[in-house]
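Sample entry (640 residues):
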Amino acid sequence: GSDASFSSPPPLGIRARVHNRVLITMSATNNPYSPAIPSSPLAERPSSRRNLRPFLVVIASVCLCSMMGRAAALSAAASKASATASRRPLTVHWFRHGDLRLHDNPALCRAAEAAAASSSSSSSSSSSDVGGGGGGGLLPVFCFDPRIFGDAARSPFGSLKCGPRRAKFVLDSVSDLRANLEGKGSGLVVAHGKPEEVFGALLERIDPGQAKSVTPRVYCQREVASEELRVDNKVRAVLGGHSPQSGGLETVWGSTMYDPEDLPFPGGVEGLPDTFTPFRNKVEKKCDIGNPLPTPSNDDLSLPRSDEALMKVVGGGDDALPKCSLTYLPTLEELGYSPEDVEKAEKPDPRGVMGTSGFVGGETAALARLHDYIWDKDLLKVYFDTRNGMLGADYSTKFSPWLAHGCISPREIARQCRRYEATRVANKSTYWVVFELLWRDYFKFFADKHGDDIFKLDGTLGDEARGSHPNSRRWGLDRRTVSAWIEGRTGYPLVDANMRELAETGFQSNRGRQNVCSFLALDTNTDWRYGADYFEQELLDYDVYSNWGNWCAGAGMTGGRVNRFNIVKQSKDYDKEGEYVRHWIPELADVPTELVHEPWKMTKEQQEQFGVRLGVDYPNPIVKPFVPSRNGGRRDGGGR
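Predicted structure, serialized as tokens:
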């Protein structure tokens, strides 16, 4: 996966000159069967030559063996160079779940540069390669991996790896990406299969047999979580197996505002602080957010149309691979979702924050939302004041689903914020949007540093979580508690309303996420990974780093301050009139504001009066209401 794997052999001219010089030296001085050179002193001293003959025979034999070996090696090198020259490169950009866009896409730019270089190189050499084409052009590919999509793709905790709503969002995004590529004269090969198998089958079809003529070079965005890295290794093995000398996978960092080499810590990512605030302070002081990269030109994105064999295989005709072509796009049913799940995904709940239209995936919709929120509605200047809302489209940016899938670049959002500050107003709100994008950066860097620890019960604390650290806990697991939490039947209206919104729409406000995490992990003392896992299934904006990093931190397992939320206080602070609770819990529709956040306080007469029977129509609390400690201790975070 390094640049070294793509290095070229020394030019043939250099090899030839070295070869000729060696041969001349051999014939002039080392060949015992050549005539004696008259000027040699040995030719003038026959007696000396007779005495030295056995010694010279030995030297001559050794020299002959050495010469033959060197000649053979040079001949093999020349043959190898000739074979390399006759090979045709296949340059691929492998789109993944986190870079479904054309603008500011570092891996795509790197792939386009490589394709342009290959095209320039191949144009100066013979175009009579096997398969009927040179090495120019770029082949964009996206794979719907069955290890992620469909009802059979399950986590170790039993949840779907990707729920049907998010799968629909990805389908929208891939369809939009293909349309945008086609608009630039390119296209997108879409496949339903494991990436390593898709690339393997493609190479075998266009380059069969033992004598390989294709050198595959695949570029993609670098990911740092273990499942993604395992897939990288499998793809790398397939590419290297096909072309051991120069085929390979190159991963390019993307999806963050800052690159790892920008970080002002000793050792880069390895020196990253384990809490956010010192990271933020140093990065904001010492680093600048780079400008977005331009979209590659139409020429640099052009398909390798001169490769006839390749275009037949991906063209969608009779010669195409099954479920893999420039025209193929699977349905949710083909991906393995049930008819019930498909119906739910394709009909957005009108109670959701985006109404009946729901969230539509893709770069086009992402850029439209960016322009609408910042410029048309002029909402950026009030973001800080409205961000803790829970109803409607505009209390927050709603950029997160598009950010999670790479439909929009965080650097593009930051650029638009800077432009807004320069032309309209700069205030705490305009800063705060970029500040929250910095959290995304932090969690990807944090995952890069700590690896699989963010998925473990004891998190990055490890053994310290068993007693020596102030955040230590003995976790429990009552599946009835987990089920009540998932179904929105905990007896705590704020928690239940948020969980019902998540189940019906795939979205939840930031304020809601903090509360439901705190409730499950800290109020019920439940293994927090069940919460993170369920979020992975349901969230439209699921991002492995932000999701698991936030849950691990929320449970106190990264070692930072634990924020245990007082659910009732939070309800009254952020849903003062109970509108959000009533929106998602119709059982409480007629309960007055003074009781709607604490329905367990209703008398039987009040229950009858307001049409809700506790324990029948709406559950009693599954745990006792939280009472904050008087000392505001570290473990409970003061009961926010």
